[in-house]
Each structure stands twice: as C-alpha cells, then as structure tokens.
Amino acid sequence: MPMYWPSLTTMPYLPENAKDTLCRNVTIYGRCRYEDKGCAFNHDPSKLNAHQADSKKRFNVDSPSFTPSLLSGNGVSAPKKSTALSPKAVSAAPFQPRTSTRSNTSTPSGRSEATQDWTVADVQEFIPQSFDVVSRSCRRSGFCSDVVMPGCPDSPRENEDPQRLGRNAWGLNYSGQMSFAADMLQQGPLQGNGNGGITSPSAFDPFVTTPTPMTPGAVGPVSANPYSHDATAAMGGAFFANQTGFQQPVQYHLYAPIGPHSQSTLGYQRNVHDLFLPNEIREELQKKSAATLQTLPNTQLPAQVDYFHSLVPLDLNHQKNAAIFGYPSWIYKAQSSKDGHFYALRRLEGFRLTNEKAIRSVQAWKRVCNGSVVTVHDAFTSRSFQDSSLIFVTDYHPLSKTLAEQHLGAGNMAISNRFQQPRTNAHIPEQVLWGYMTQIANAVKAIHDNGLAARVLEPSKILITGKNRLRINACAVLDVVQFDTQRTVPDLQRQDLVNFGQLILTLGANSPTIMHNPAKAMEHFTRAYSPQLKNSVVWLLNSLQQEPSRDIDTFIHGISAQLMSTFDSALHMDDQLTSDLSRELENARLVRLMTKMSLVNERPEYDLDPRWSDTGERYFLKLFRDYVFHTVDAQGDPVVDLGHVLTCINKLDAGSDEKITLISRDEQSCFIVSYKEVKKALESSFQALMKPTRRMH
Ligand SMILES: Nc1ncnc2c1ncn2[C@@H]1O[C@H](COP(=O)(O)OP(=O)(O)OP(=O)(O)O)[C@@H](O)[C@H]1O
Predict the structure, then answer these.
(1) Is 115 in the pocket of ligand 1 (CB under 6 A)?
(2) Tens digit of pLDDT for each residue in 163-197?
(3) CB neighbours of 335 closer than 8 A, spacing ≥ 6?
(4) Which residues are bridge partners to 472 per DSSP?
(5) What one-character-per-residue DSSP string does 485-532 give?
(6) Predicted pLDDT of residue 612
(7) For residue range 583-637, what is the model confidence (pLDDT) as tens digits?
(8) 659: nearest Cα among 667, 650, 651
(9) Measured distance CA(518)–CA(511) in Å, rounded
(10) What start-end ranges are recorded for coiled-coil regions in this protein (predicted)?
C-alpha cells in the first residue's frame, strides 16, 4: 500500500486542526517520509497527547453544556471505530459522556484520534452509538477493516462475521432477500441540521413531537426544496419537469413498503422484485406496447386511408360473415397522422352511403364516454380499398379478445397463436358472470342516457381488454347502416335489454348455438347458476312483453347488491395497482439521473482535454461513478449490489449532506465530498454540456 499523502493538491479538504492531528503515516509506518516535505500533520505523538489532555479538560463530564446526542460540533455523529470493535467493550463501564469530536470520521484527524484510542488500555468506556452517518468509501470495500460504510453491505457492522452475512450478487442474501434494505431502514430519514451536518436518528427523541415534512404546514427541513435548485435551469423543462410548488422531503427517496405484503419476510427484508413492477403486469404492458407498435411490411393493404397509415389487420380469419351488420366487416389497427395515436378502423366492405344524415349520427356516439364502451371517434367513407367502404374509427385496445373468442371458441386456432392460450371450454364462474353483467349494464345505461341504443350486444362484439374487463364494441355501426329503420329509440332500447339477456344466457350455457333452443339453454343455465342470476336473465328476456315498460335503471336497481360487490373488486384492483405503481416511484428519477451522469462522464470528444475530464468537478464525478458502480471486494472481485447503487443514486438525487470519500483508481488521491456537492457538480457539468461554447469558462 502506498504511503498516505494527505496534502496532495487534488485533495480539497485539509482539516483546520491538521497540526493537532497525528499523521496517519506515523500511525501505520512509525514515521512519515513527507514530514519535512510539507506534510501538514503532527508527527510528534507526545505533543498531541498534551493537547488532547488539554481538550479533555475543556470537555468533560463537568461541562455544563454537554448534550448526550453523540453529535460532534458540526452536527455529524461521532465515529464509532474502535469502541465498537474492541473486545473490552463487552465488559465496558456504564455510559459516561465524554469528549465529543469536532471533525467527521472521514478526515485524517479522525483516524489519528482513533489511533490514540486504539490501544486496549485506553478503552475505558463503552459509548453506545448508532451507525456512522458519515460514510467512507474504500474501493476494496469488501469487509474493509477501517471503513464503515452504511449502505455498503460488505462493511463490517457490530462485530458481524462477514461470512455469516452470506451475500451473493445483487446484494441478496442466501434466503433471497435484498441486503440493503436493512441499511436503508436503519439510516432512517436524513435531515439537514442547518449546519451543513446531518442529524442522525440517534438524536431522535420519542417524547418530542417535531413537525414531520408530511405534516401540513410543517417547516424546517422541508422549507427549502432540496431539488428545486436545478429543476428547470439544469435540464430544461423538457428533460426534467419543473418541480416548483411541490416540496418533496428527502425521506421520499426511500422506497416505502406499501401493501399488500408478503408474510414470509421479516420487516426489514426486501426481495429485489419488491422494488419493481410485478412481472406479470410488466410483461402484459410490454406485450401490449409491442402489439401497438407492430407493423406489417409488404402488405397489400393501402398505405393511406384518409388520415391513417400503417394498417395492420386484427381479424383472426379470412371468412367474414355479414350476419351482424349486413356487410362483411374488417378490423385494422392504424396510426393517425393527425395526432400520432393508434386507432382501430372497422371497415364495412361494399357499403354505399345514400343518406348523408346517416353518417352524422356518429356525432352523438362521440359523446358517450364510458369505461365499458369502446369510444367511437369518427366515421367516413373511403375508396382506398378499391371499393366503396364505410370506415368507423374507434379506440384501439391492444391484445383484446372478444367474449366469443374467450368463451365460445370463435377463431380458436388463431387465438392460440395470438394470445398463446387457447380458450378453455370451462363454465364461467358465477362471480365472473355477475362482473360481466354489471359492466354491460354500466355501458347500456351510459348509451341509453345519451338517447341512443347499443343495437349490437353480441359475444363477438364485446371486447375483453384486461382481466374480466369488458367493453362494448362496434357501437354506432347499425345507426349508420340501418339509418332508415322504423323502430323508435325506446323500442330499440328495450331490444337492447332482450339482447343483453340472450348474451348472458349464451355465455352461461357456454355454446354459441344454444340460443337455437332457448328452453334447453335456460334449463342448462338454471342448473349452473343461482336463482338470483337466473331471475335477472329472465327479467331481461321478458323486457319487450311486460308492462309497465322496463328500462336499464330498473334493472340496475334490481342488481344493486352485485354492483356493490363489483365496485368493491374494482377498489381492490385500484389498491393493488396503486401499490404496484409505487414500486416504480423512483425509477424515472433514477434513470434520468443515471442518464445525466452517463452524459457527463468520460465523453470521448473531451478525452484529451484535461480541463474537461481530469480536473475539478468532472474528476470527482468520475470517481463517484466508480464509487457507485465499480466497487470491488477484498479479493478484487466486483461488488454487484443493487442496494448500494440505489442508495447512492437516491442520496445523490436528494443532495444529502452525507459525506463520502472518493479514492482515485491508483489510490494516490482522495476527495471527501458530500452528495450535495456531487449533485451540484453534476448539475454544473451538465449545464456546461448544454452550452458547449461556454463550457471552458
Ligand atoms: N377496438 C379494437 N381494438 C383492438 N382489437 C379489436 C378492436 N375491435 C376488434 N378487435 C379485435 O379484432 C378481432 C376481430 O373483431 P371483430 O369485431 O371483427 O370480430 P369477429 O370475431 O371477426 O366477428 P365477426 O366474424 O362477426 O366479424 C377480434 O379479435 C377483436 O379482439
């Protein structure tokens, strides 16, 4: 190990009391080769002892102003060092207040004092302390004996046997739990003390209620937004949103465990998956994104249909029946050149518009805004397909299936290709069927309230867009195609109720053809489901015959108990999604911060420019990057600890006052810097990048 050389020019920090601090080289090697070459530290232990005796006189038990918070003068907690490690500590005398140290543990002076205390004979008393708030880095951080690094799982803690820690890559211990969480939770909130120091959790007094940053009207630590200094100035509004108006306290930079929780883990344990979106949701969303962005090269389809392009067919087979609309219909996904969004285009092949008013009836459908209806946006005629077609523009719901595909085996082969899960012939559970009923009732009510009728309530025209999540599709089509119908809207609305009843009966009987024999279908339904469900279906089926006339409001009133149950399920789902979302809370921030770091660090075009890469702030940003990502253990193997990375980046984002020691790759120089300083340096370097012409000034 090279001799320690504290007065290198790159080292920005020299303790003001250097003369009172025993040189570390004297401690380690017995002498300092730089004693006469400018080393600013003390090389005569006897002088130091005299001085320390002096200082003990000044600060002792009798000192009237002693505060047993274990904080040093600058607000940084006193080092624990040898006291925590000494075997004598076990039989230590009861707690007695002793001299508080002035500087933090990262400084050479801290080390020399430790040396004074290091001999066993000097360990007089055990001072109960919490962890060192000031962390000290060591590139060889694996169980490094002289560095206590909160957040670094390889640092020794409280006589912990490193072997027992049994950690593996990603900071997981062998039981599969994240190791960093304990450190993060242990550290608790970091709060500036207004002195540039940090109050440690050891100063927490359970009997004193202080306003927390979450308390409305709280002042103190949150009065200054720790992030606001750079918000728009540094990144420009487009890159980082301006955060003015929101006082985010530092505590929010920890991942708070929002339920539901796994019962098999201890309070402080985290599984790496706890930090991110659950895999199923991530996969589902990614598949949906992929489906949305899918394109079809070498297609025979027109390149442009009105203001849409990039058409991809959504139909699962080439056989089209004209049974529902009277015209063969096709569905395409397409991108709008007006707004760049994706839409579903339903094309009715060979339709000739004879009455212009017909197509205007779509206007009324644009006003139907309901979670159970596929929103209709537009309708127009087109000759792009070399015929005369009628096109309906609706919302696109990627990877959706129709009820017929899901439960009645429609397009079975193709479905298994697209969704990789062929339809099961299983009987639909009653609760699921109630869920379908309440959602369709919701859609029908919205449609009827707008003075319209759904007219198409078929299993092949109802989409499942998520788990048990339905939306009525193909609305508005019959209003245009059968514009001249003689039936009144109330009549069509009653017909909707009948169609609704038939739909549920078909699904419950689990066969598309069972409606050819309604008596048999009802018999099957009665056997499979509760009388309440059956009665609801019968009520709907009889809507045309009975007086007084029936409407959707009366039906909804009748199934209110089921509505409550569906509503409750929706609330649970909402909770679950909120909880899942909270896991992603910091990711966007972290990714942006890491992007910033990557943009600044080691830019090839400035590689040979010493003013850019190897001096000042850029240099310690480079070392900070090493500290976060390139730490190695005692054997020189890379430490791959996600917990360490997240902790460091979160603290950087928060601009914490906590200090770290950054050591150069050749171990010849070091910086003692706070995260706050690193953050400022990152901001100004990034600013310099954004203004290349002025960067050198
Ligand atoms: N708005 C939409 N967003 C996404 N996919 C849709 C949309 N509308 C329909 N689809 C999908 O397109 C496919 C074809 O739908 P379509 O309405 O033509 O039903 P179909 O099963 O072909 O019935 P039919 O034979 O009566 O036309 C279905 O798999 C459906 O999930």
Answers:
(1) no
(2) 333 333 233 332 333 333 333 323 333 333 333 33
(3) 308, 309, 310, 341, 342, 343
(4) 373, 462
(5) ----HHHHHHHHHHHHHHHHHHHHHT-TTGGGSHHHHHHHHHHHS-HH
(6) 61
(7) 787 788 888 889 988 888 877 766 656 666 566 677 888 889 999 999 888 898 9
(8) 651
(9) 12
(10) 561-599
Residue 79: which of 54, 108, 52, 56 has the closest Cα? 108
Q: Is 402 in the pocket of ligand 1 (CB under 6 A)?
A: yes
The angle, 0 to 180 degrees and rounded to 10, between the axes of the packed helices 560-583 and 430-449 is 100
pLDDT tens, residue by residue, 342-383: 999 999 999 999 888 899 999 999 999 999 999 999 999 999
CA-based nearest residue to 417, from 396, 399, 442, 392: 399
Centre of ligand 1 to C-alpha 497, Å, is 23
The 3-state DSSP class for residue 52 equals helix
The predicted model scores a pTM of: 0.60
Q: Tokens for 671?
A: 């910086």
Tokens representing residue 40 in the block:
């600013």
- For 357-400, strand residue ranges (E) read 376-382, 389-395
CA of 328 to the centre of ligand 1 (A): 12
Residues 6 or more apart in contact with residue 146 via CB below 8 angstroms: 111, 138
pLDDT at 154 over 50: no
ipTM value > 0.90: yes
> What is the residue-wise DSSP string for 54-103?
HHHHHSSTT-TT--TT-B-TTSPBPP-HHHHH-GGGGGPBPP---PPPSS
Whole-number Å distance between alpha carbons of 131 and 77: 9
Dig out the tokens for 510 from the structure.
């689990």
The residue count for the chain: 697
Dist. CA 489 → ligand 1 center (Å): 26
Q: How many Cα atoms occupy the beta-carbon half-sphere of 231 within 13 Å?
A: 12
Would you tell me how many other CB atoms lie within 10 Å of the CB of residue 586? 19
**Other C-beta atoms lying within 10 Å of the C-beta of residue 571:** 10
Three-state secondary-structure class, residue 417: helix
Residue 465 Cβ inside 6 Å of ligand 1? The answer reads no
Q: 555 CB contacts (<8 Å, ≥6 apart)?
A: 441, 497, 536, 539, 540
Long-range contacts of 225-229 (CB under 8 A, 24+ apart): 226/192, 226/250, 226/654, 226/655, 227/653, 227/654, 227/655, 229/680, 229/683
**Higher pLDDT, residue 394 or 239:** 394
- Atom of ligand 1 minimally distant from the CA of 404: 21
- DSSP classification of residue 359: H
Pick out the residues of the known binding site for ATP: 346, 395-402, 460-461
Give the list of residues 6+ apart from residue 420 with CB closer than 8 angstroms, or none: none
Q: Are 506 and 512 in contact (CB under 8 A)?
A: yes
- The strand pairing partners of 199, in sequence order, are 191
Rounded distance between C-alpha atoms, residue 618 and residue 607, angstroms: 12
pLDDT, mean over the chain: 70
Question: Which backbone phi and psi does 342 adopt, to 5 degrees?
Answer: -100, 140
Contact 589, 241 (CB under 8 A): no
Distance CA 537, CA 532 (A): 9
- Which residue has a Cα nearest atom 19 of ligand 1? 460
